[in-house]
């Protein structure tokens, strides 16, 4: 093993152990921390640095509290309940892509839920259908055609 790597590891372990235990080591850390603070004083953090810090902090805080809410807000302009609806639609469709038959297992993650009439506010069962990622991409062109295909497919299933 190269000596540089070994030294880094030893340093890392030492820092870890200082984070725990004995009042003595805690006091040493506190003093060191104060000294470091003094050394840093007068060197202002850049705005970018501050912004990064607060973003990281917000993400952690909210993520712990309610990850679904954050996901919904960040990536989708849908109502919050849509996560639940999506899961119901996937179950209705057997977790299989309704266009090509690809399964959730083959996809390696949850399948997409597609809005048949392309209106993302319309979350009724009859407007939602399970698609794999690939098919979900394909149906973005020829919209009138796909809308018809999926509407007919659902009508047949629901009768
Ligand atoms: Zn598919």
Topology readout:
Blueprint: H1 3-18, H2 23-40, H3 47-65, H4 67-75, H5 82-92, H6 104-107, E1 112-115, E2 128-131, H7 133-138, H8 143-158
The structure holds zinc ion.
Question: How is this structure best described in words?
Answer:
The protein is mainly α. The protein has a domain at 76-158. 62% of the residues lie in helices and 5% in strands. The chain has 8 helices and 2 strands. The chain has helices at 3-18, 23-40, 47-65, 67-75, 82-92, 104-107, 133-138, 143-158; strands at 112-115, 128-131. The protein has a two-stranded antiparallel ribbon. The termini are far apart. Mean pLDDT is 73; it is low at 35-39 and 53-74. The structure holds zinc ion. Residues 97, 99-100, 102, 131-132, 134-135 line the site of zinc ion.
Which key features would you list for this structure?
single chain; 159 residues; mainly alpha; 2 strands; binds zinc ion
Quaternary state of the chains: single chain
Q: What is the string of SSEs from the N terminus onward?
A: HHHHHHEEHH
Strand content: 5-15%
Give the low-pLDDT segments: 35-39, 53-74
Ions, cofactors and other ligands present here are:
zinc ion
How large is the count of helical segments?
8
General form: globular
Q: Average pLDDT, to the nearest integer?
A: 73
Question: How far do the termini sit from each other?
Answer: 69 Å
Structural class: mainly alpha
User: How do the strands of the widest beta sheet line up side by side?
Assistant: 1-2
Number of strands: 2
